[in-house]
Amino acid sequence: MSERWSPGTRIGYPSGGLALAHCRQRFLLGPQGTLFPCQWLHERGFPVLVEHVLGSFDGEPVRLLELERPVELAGCSWQTLRQLMLESDVETFRLLGYASQIGTWARQHRFCGSCGAPMELLPGERAMHCPHCEVQHYPRLSPSMIVLVTRGDEVLLARSPRFSSVTAP
Asked: What residues does the NADH pyrophosphatase-like N-terminal domain cover (predicted)?
């Protein structure tokens, strides 16, 4: 990863540090950005579904607060990851991409897919555990890759058959 952003799951992080507020694919954005003092966010009384340790950013522990619903806060707005792409530096955007995937996974795995019982966060791991039927669910992170196929000065171009055919002039 990078020097500024380091992922982690350990519960041993101190209770202070920074936090991101996330709800339904949106992050809370304030005048200082998306990272808020964790204690300050907790004091606002947000309806937190689950809290996950994400790792550290600039040496500070970072948590994700996945909210039940977006809450209006003076001077702040809710922004999608795409909207934040051009407003954030590369390292912050990397953190936000990771947090978005963890937040979505946490929201979608609150209940066991096998028996319907409430899931619990497995201590020390990035996993949800069903105490009733012992099923464990891990997040499915979605990396992507882009490939350029070349031969000499030639480039292979392809298109989906769903798109209309266009002839070159």
From this structure: 20-105
Cα 169 from Cα 121, distance rounded (Å): 59
Q: What is the DSSP letter of 107?
A: H
Per-10-residue mean pLDDT, the chain, length 169: 74 75 95 93 92 90 94 94 87 92 92 93 87 91 80 88 65
Place of tokens 């909210």: 67
Sign, Cα dihedral of 100, 46, 127, 58: positive
| Distances from the Cα of 22 to the Cα of 26, 50, 52, 68, 90, angstroms | 6, 10, 11, 9, 19
| Contacts of range 99-104, beta carbons closer than 8 Å, 24 or more positions apart | 99/20, 99/22, 99/27, 99/54, 99/64, 100/22, 100/25, 100/27, 101/139, 101/141, 101/142, 102/52, 102/54, 102/64, 102/126, 102/139, 103/22, 103/23, 103/52, 103/64, 103/66, 104/25
Domains of the chain: 5-141 (3.90.79.20)
How many whole angstroms separate alpha carbon 25 and alpha carbon 48? 15
> Helix (H) and strand (E) counts for the chain?
3, 12
- How far apart CA 11 and CA 143 sit, in angstroms, is 25
